[in-house]
């Protein structure tokens, strides 16, 4: 399983449908938001895990807590109750000082209010954590980086879908330089982490960040 399951598979489609109904928007726009936001969340988690052993251990524990039962079993409750304060805290832990940047950028691109986008991110956060937690339980070991690599590129024959993706994340996410790969189809995940990392590059202006969000969403179809 890989990130496509989380965005366009059974999990993603249920989240998209609920978000569309909650915000009273069409599902294509809800799908755009999900497809742009989820890769940013996963890349940010990976970056945070590399800051220190303590950070990695904290993320590991959080994934274990969220992965105790099937994410599909949890999905109804998560989507039914709406985001909680704890879910907002997950978003803030993921993005840190970049939380406002992510929220504002998604709001600007979609024309949806920042408070509504914040609610969408808080809805997606426990789903992402639950999905990664489940994948961690099913994996044969390895660190956060190995887990993220399998989710971002698992099952892909493209050689850049393994170590290349991880190397890109480590070099570019949250303030570094971005890569030049611009994947254009759902089957080409090789540049996904490059795009996610380049979004956080402080040298990029709002237009560039908006273009990156379009590219992220475009991987999974608009």
Automatic annotation (TrEMBL):
Q: Which domain of life is it from?
A: Bacteria
Q: Which InterPro entries match?
A: DUF937 (IPR009282)
Would you tell me the protein name for this molecule?
DUF937 domain-containing protein
User: Organism, per UniProt?
Assistant: Sphingobacterium bovistauri
